[in-house]
Amino acid sequence: GYNNYWFDRGAGVVDDGRTSLLVDPSNGRLPEVPAGVSRQATEDGVSQRPIRFRVGGVGSDGPEDRGLAERCLLGFNTGPPVVPGGYNQNLQIFQTAD
Prior knowledge:
Strand content: under 5%
Radius of gyration: 18 Å
Structural class: little secondary structure
Largest sheet: none
Number of helices: 0
Distance between the termini: 43 Å
């Protein structure tokens, strides 16, 4: 196992315990999901390739049939909400013109 030297516990938590703050839209509510956005669990039962975790669905013939967590592209502390994990606390957040 790891000793405490290897763990990055994060800088701390805000006083009110929030893990995030919505600033856009101004009402602070999560926006509606746009039409045409793919969801992993569909109401019509049609199988789709996994996005993050694989739960049922199509067979696993190649890496594209496995979720991002299973391929180690997303870890156990990858939000939302982004919360401190045992290690790898490095984040880079950027916004493009798109």
